[in-house]
Specification:
The complex is a heterodimer of chains A (326) and B (379). Chain A has 326 residues and is α/β, with parallel strands linked by helices. Chain A has twelve helices and 14 strands. Chain A has a seven-stranded mixed beta sheet, sandwiched between helices. The termini of chain A are far apart. Chain B is of the alpha/beta class. Chain B has two domains: 305 residues, Rossmann fold (3-Layer(aba) Sandwich), CATH 3.40.50; 46 residues. Chain B has 15 helices and nine strands. In chain B, α2 packs parallel to α9. The longest helix of chain B is centred in the C-terminal third of the chain and has 32 residues. The N and C termini of chain B lie far apart (102 Å). Classes of the chains: A alpha/beta (326), B alpha/beta (379).
């Protein structure tokens, strides 16, 4: 198949999922006639009609809450929250119900539903449109939190999320929507949720990242290799919860050094959990303290100063060198 | 224990005083002094021209994405005209005319949409909250401010705003209910422009009006022609008087139309017809108000032209000033992103502040090195 960008890949997955399974419905604000503010739901309304592609009133709590109800009654809703800055309105539904139904009914009721939302900075968006708060969801038991990094894994992971028997929070790095294209296979594919990927092999140091920040990690790895002959192994988490520590522990045992890159805040962030897992499983293999290159513990600045907040390859390279020179 | 009827109000008033052709209902015309009328017109015009100017700037890459206010001037100004500096103005994000009238410098508005937190700092001496992006979330704040007024025995009121989409949010319902229960002196003003981005009113609710929700909260509710500044003025004046008299909140729905896209990132042709937009263009609020002022002898056509020129030059100067401000050290200082999060920067954040400092130093070193090598290459 031709090379496509991430926006198109997610759109393709939605088309494929709705084609193959009548239980899949798409719902959210402006997802129908407008085809989504990022055009992620392009063509769905025309093809599947307003019975399965539902333009909802402006109410996030009800979008997620009714998606819960729909999944209880046999549907497979994929609901869209327009920006993660507005998913807090629905957080009580996610935390109080989506994450708990299976457990509190001892498996009698479970929720095969997906909550999609674009997250993160880097697009000069207005206030409340650039947050990266995946840690809230990762901290909630009973949720799976998936963050793709490119077109191919975005499509495959969305299929896995829709087919999953439990609720999946699927966060889309909107800075990557149209950043680059990638070949995706003709045939529909899935990727296991809860499995990280080694996207570049190396021996001197492990860089762990996910989502939009993976670009900075990969750029840094390439530059370190070219300029300083440093061989970095880059791990893409893909699922931030349940976290696949086996993949990165194996890598850290090999390299003995690790740098974590994410744009979400540092305090109690995903990096903190990664370090805890390394301490639990590979402490004695470490040659240097693990470093975090993350957003600072401040609200993400409005866009005029966003660049001081978002990790870039320079910050990653600096952290890698500090780790190597420890 | 029979089934019986519980009597509740079933009617909602609609108010229009100055229609789209500038026909005036003299019986309903409010008595507004000439100077005040001129001032109201001026700020509506200032809001419109600032909005138009910002759109041009956005298209030239000189401004970020922003939601336009054009078409909402009558609701914003007609209501804001009824409150004083000690009262509170709690906007959503299309109340530009009212914000400027309240004393927000145009520069702040431009800076905000240009990605500077300094733009959200309210001017001194007015009780204003900044623009609120997350839909409907400002409404409970407005109610809380008003509840504090009751506790403190202040005689002020809160004027707060939301859109037709916001009316679907839980926060909107919760705020209205609190206000009703606690008899909070709040005037809820709904800018019903009939579309929440692409979603039309008919999909937003299955009722005739938003005003009728007032019945359920047992508070007064009215729908007005939201493009008729006189109707908005009269309805909000009554609501302010009620609130000041300790009689609690009111709900005023102004029916209007967004003359522009939702934001600069939106394409309304995907969901609204040109014919519909053209029809509403004719009903927009400024033209009829200008005609009213001329008919009434408050302003001559020449006065209107002069005001146009004056407003244009005010906007031009403000744009220049905002762009200058964006370059000044106070605003470009990167440490601003850290220094305002807490009253005192905690230790862990202080360390991150130092980390930022090192990043900036490395960047400056690289720039200096590059400049040096370029100079070297030239010589």
């Amino acid at each position: 198949m031709a090379e496509i960008n991430m926006a198109k890949a997610i759109n393709l997955a939605l088309h494929e999922a709705m084609d193959r399974d009548e239980r899949v419905v798409v719902m959210g604000e402006d997802v129908g006639q407008d085809e989504g503010v990022f055009r992620i739901t392009e063509g769905l309304y025309a093809k599947f009609g307003d019975n399965r592609v539902i333009d909802t009133p402006l109410a996030e709590a009800a979008i997620v809450g009714t998606a819960i109800g729909m999944s209880i009654n046999g549907m497979r809703p994929v609901c869209e929250i327009q920006f993660t800055g507005f998913d807090y309105y629905a957080f009580h539904q996610v935390e109080g119900h989506a994450s708990r139904f299976r457990n509190r009914t001892r498996g009698r009721i479970h929720l095969p539903m997906v909550m999609r939302a674009p997250y993160g900075g880097g697009i000069r968006a207005l206030e409340h449109h650039s947050e990266s708060r995946e840690a809230y969801y990762a901290h909630t038991p009973g949720l799976k939190v998936v963050i793709p990094s490119g077109p191919r894994n975005a499509r495959a992971l969305l299929h896995s999320a829709i087919q999953d028997p439990d609720p999946v929070i699927y966060l889309e790095p909107k800075a990557c929507y149209r950043l680059f294209r990638e070949e995706v296979p003709e045939k529909m594919e899935t990727l296991p949720i809860g499995q990280a990927q080694i996207v570049k092999e190396g021996s001197d140091l492990t860089i762990i990242s996910y989502g939009a920040s993976l670009r900075a990690a990969l750029e840094a790895a390439e530059e370190l290799e070219e300029d300083d002959n440093i061989s970095c192994e880059v791990v893409d988490l893909l699922t931030v919860s349940p976290m696949d520590h086996k993949t990165f522990i194996k890598s850290v045992m090999k390299t003995g050094r690790c740098v974590i890159v994410h744009e979400g805040q540092r305090n109690c962030g995903i990096g903190a959990e990664i370090i805890a897992r390394i301490n639990e499983h590979a402490l004695m293999y470490l040659e240097a303290p693990v470093k975090r290159v993350t957003g600072f513990d401040i609200p993400i600045p409005y866009f005029s100063k966003e660049r001081y907040y978002l990790p870039d390859s320079e910050r990653v390279i600096f952290a890698c060198k500090e780790t190597l020179n420890f | 224990m029979p089934r019986k009827v519980i009597e509740i109000a079933q009617k909602i008033e609609y108010l229009s005083i100055l229609d789209e052709n500038a026909n005036l209902d003299k019986k309903l015309e409010p008595d507004i002094p000439a100077d005040k009328l001129k001032e109201m017109y001026r700020y509506m015009l200032l809001g419109r021209r600032t909005d138009e100017r910002m759109l041009k700037m956005q298209r030239q890459g000189r401004l970020g994405t922003f939601p336009q206010s054009a078409g909402h001037e009558a609701i914003s100004m007609g209501s804001a005209a009824n409150i004083g500096k000690d009262d509170w103005h709690v906007p959503a994000y299309r109340e530009l005319a009212g914000m400027l009238y309240r004393g927000w410098p145009i520069e702040n508005i431009i800076l905000f949409w240009n990605g500077f937190e300094e733009g959200t700092r309210p001017p001194e001496l007015v009780n204003d909250l900044p623009i609120c992006v997350p839909i409907a979330t400002q409404l409970p704040h407005a109610v809380g401010i008003a509840m504090a007024m009751n506790i403190k025995k202040e005689k002020n009121v809160v004027m707060t705003y939301f859109g037709d989409g916001a009316a679907s949010e839980g926060d909107c319902h919760e705020a209205l209910n609190f206000a009703s229960v606690f008899k909070a002196p709040v005037v809820f003003v709904c800018l019903n422009n009939q579309y929440a981005i692409s979603v039309p009113l008919s999909r937003q609710m299955n009722c005739e009006t938003i005003a009728q929700r007032a019945i359920a909260y047992n508070i007064p509710g009215i729908r007005v022609d939201g493009n008729d500044v006189l109707a908005v003025y009269v309805a909000t004046k009554e609501a302010v008087e009620r609130a000041r008299a300790g009689l609690g909140p009111s709900l005023i729905e102004g029916l209007t139309y967004r003359l522009t896209p939702h934001t600069t990132a939106d394409d309304p042709k995907r969901y609204r017809s040109d014919a519909e937009t053209d029809e509403w263009m004719k009903k927009e609020p400024l033209i009829r108000f200008g005609k009213y002022l001329v008919n009434k002898g408050v302003m001559s056509p020449k006065d209107l032209e002069e005001m146009e020129a004056d407003v244009d030059s005010q906007v031009k100067k403000a744009v220049e000033k905002a762009e200058e401000m964006a370059k000044c050290e106070d605003l470009t200082n990167p440490y601003n992103i850290i220094d305002h999060v807490f009253s005192d920067v905690p230790q862990f954040l202080q360390e991150q502040r130092e980390e930022l400092g090192e990043y900036i130093k490395r960047e400056n070193d690289r720039k200096a090195k590059k400049a040096k090598s370029e100079t070297g290459a030239r010589s």
